[in-house]
Design a protein that fits this description.
By secondary structure, the chain is of the alpha/beta class. Helices cover 30% and strands 20% of the residues. Helix 2 links the parallel strand 3 and strand 4. The chain is globular and about 45 Å long.
């Protein structure tokens, strides 16, 4: 059960792995490949101080020229995966949007000098509705999705998170949804095991460094061992939601809260605050 509170409680920020397409809701080979990750996500809400008032989720699957927020009241789902069983295109997650929160985010980002926009027609992609089905299955918490800037600039993503960190004091949960390793050629290849381990060790040390050092290291993540083997050039969108979560973490400490080996690679989750 999630603790309840009549007053606002400061939320942490999360970077979570969202798996491979609708992997948690279908058969896989081996059958237990995603079980530990699914169990982690199912229990994650119990670590919160109270039920979030709203969720801001940054998905690896939405890139735009300007940082953009969903501003519709009832966004539809976008089944942006292909080749999966028919029933996975019937999954539902009817969480409401939050136009007022979206407007507040636009004003806050604009005041920080960050070019931004809203999209009232854009729906929720699977980077949102797949993990949230496990974390908050009742789908009763309003959600605003936040895009990544298609420049893929890690420093800018840190700045976006930093600008929005005040939302945490309003019981808004900020989530970065991606994967700490995301190279389609590497999944299932034993040669990538040691490479992903070295990168994961570096990434954990970066997240757990002092906030100033954390920002410096994450801004220069391409210098990490095996960085481009784990996240190929112009395909690092699955890592960058971590930067937004870290920026929103402000001066709070970061730490690894989950790690597993799936398809021969290390996959981890982190929290701040």
């Amino acid at each position: 059960m999630i603790p309840t509170s009549a007053t606002h409680s400061k939320m942490p920020t999360w970077f979570i792995p969202h798996g491979a397409g609708p992997c948690f809701f279908m058969d896989w080979n081996p059958p237990d490949a995603w079980h530990r990750m699914a169990d982690f996500l199912k229990n994650l809400a119990t670590t919160l101080p109270c039920t979030p008032k709203a969720i801001v989720l940054v998905s690896a699957h939405w890139l735009t020229p300007k940082v953009t927020v969903t501003s519709g009241s009832h966004p539809q789902l976008i089944y942006d995966y292909s080749g999966f069983p028919p029933h996975t295109y019937e999954l539902q997650y009817p969480a409401p949007g939050d136009p007022a929160l979206a407007a507040q985010m636009l004003a806050t980002l604009g005041a920080a000098g960050i070019a931004c926009a809203s999209d009232a027609q854009r729906g929720f992609d699977h980077g949102m509705f797949i993990p949230l089905q496990l974390i908050f299955p009742q789908a009763n918490i309003p959600v605003v999705q936040l895009s990544l800037n298609d420049s893929l600039d890690p420093t800018q993503q840190l700045q976006v998170g930093r600008a929005l960190q005040g939302l945490r004091d309003q019981s808004v949960l900020i989530i970065g949804s991606g994967m700490s390793f995301h190279n389609m050629r590497g999944y299932g290849n034993p040669q990538y095991g040691p490479i992903s381990d070295a990168f994961d060790t570096w990434l954990t040390a970066a997240v757990e460094a002092t906030p100033q050092e954390r920002d410096r290291l994450l801004s220069n993540w391409t210098q990490a061992p095996g960085a481009r083997d784990c996240h190929p050039a112009r395909a690092e969108e699955h890592l960058l939601p971590l930067m937004t979560a870290a920026g929103a973490g402000g001066m709070d400490a970061g730490r690894k809260v989950f790690s597993d080996r799936v398809m021969e690679t290390a996959l981890s989750a982190f929290t701040f605050g």
